[in-house]
Amino acid sequence: KGCTQVGDNQRNFRLNKNRSRNYLETENTIFLKSGYSIWNLRFINDMEYRTYSRSFKEQTNSRNQEQKTYISGISYSFTEKDSLIISRNISLISTDYSVSNSILDNDQLTDQYQFSLFWYLKERIKVVNHFNYTIREEVYLSQFMSANNKLTRSYNLLPSLSIALNDKLQLEQDYHLRADYDDFFWSDFSQNRLYRKFTASYTLNATFPTSSDIANFNYRSLEYQTERGLMLGVNYTYDTNDSGIDTGEAYQLINQNEYHSYSLDIRGFSGRVEGRIRPRFTVSRSATEFNHLLQIRYTLPKRYGDAFLSINPNGNSLQKAYWRVSFDFFVEF
Fold this sequence. Notes:
Elements: E1 2-11, E2 23-38, E3 41-56, E4 63-77, E5 83-96, E6 106-121, E7 125-140, E8 150-164, E9 169-184, E10 193-208, E11 228-246, E12 251-270, E13 273-278, E14 280-284, E15 288-291, E16 293-299, E17 305-315, E18 322-331
Antiparallel strand pairs: 1-2, 2-3, 3-4, 4-5, 5-6, 6-7, 7-8, 8-9, 9-10, 10-11, 11-12, 12-13, 12-14, 13-16, 14-15, 15-17, 16-17, 17-18
């Protein structure tokens, strides 16, 4: 399977002091996917080539980027639903600032190993566990930026548990445990760093009318099963992270953050039209912030695509809120 994608994005700011932020963004992607199966085994080989450019009106920070990616993997199906997937992802990203400031030119080589387990228990309980180990090498081509050259080792564990309580209710639990270690090539100029993060998210989803597929965890496609319906979701997320520097004998913590997030997601649909309201509040030690979303979606006939209108206010208060309004249009053929 092969495909070519081309996209353009342009953003303009009206205020004089912000006109330097006007830019034109262009992205082109070519990818080739292949796979074959033998008994319960499936082998995957994917290749992707991507070019990206962002051109600012005043050339500041304008850049060109080239990305080459190769993915290989193997999956083993224990049963019709249970499976184990092992994959490796190698990616090289070259960023060129020569049109604005060549001192920032850099290459980033990423090598990621991922292990994924999908397991169903008694048909109403779904267990998913992802673990990935990533090695990322970042090198600046200019000698003036070489102190920032580093090797990052990243460990991520992402277990989740979904329980269909009945034909209307589903409880989801998602966790993320992460640790990053930054080792600089020239430790005399930059201290090695540590970043740790833990996230726990709990969501209760309800669908009306009753969806017979909620026990199979396909409740998100309910709008394609009935002409009218309502979906409600209540979420609580706890997030804590800290960072530290290497003192030679141990890491000394220099920063720590803790967040509590609460949201209510209401989605109603009738025919091809879907409306969504999602208020969200995040409480930290220093402030309370909100990030709300109002969205309307229209699905084209025969599901050839979608059109989205989104209004997204966020900030500390409505008087000083940052309002983002966007319109997205997708077509498939």
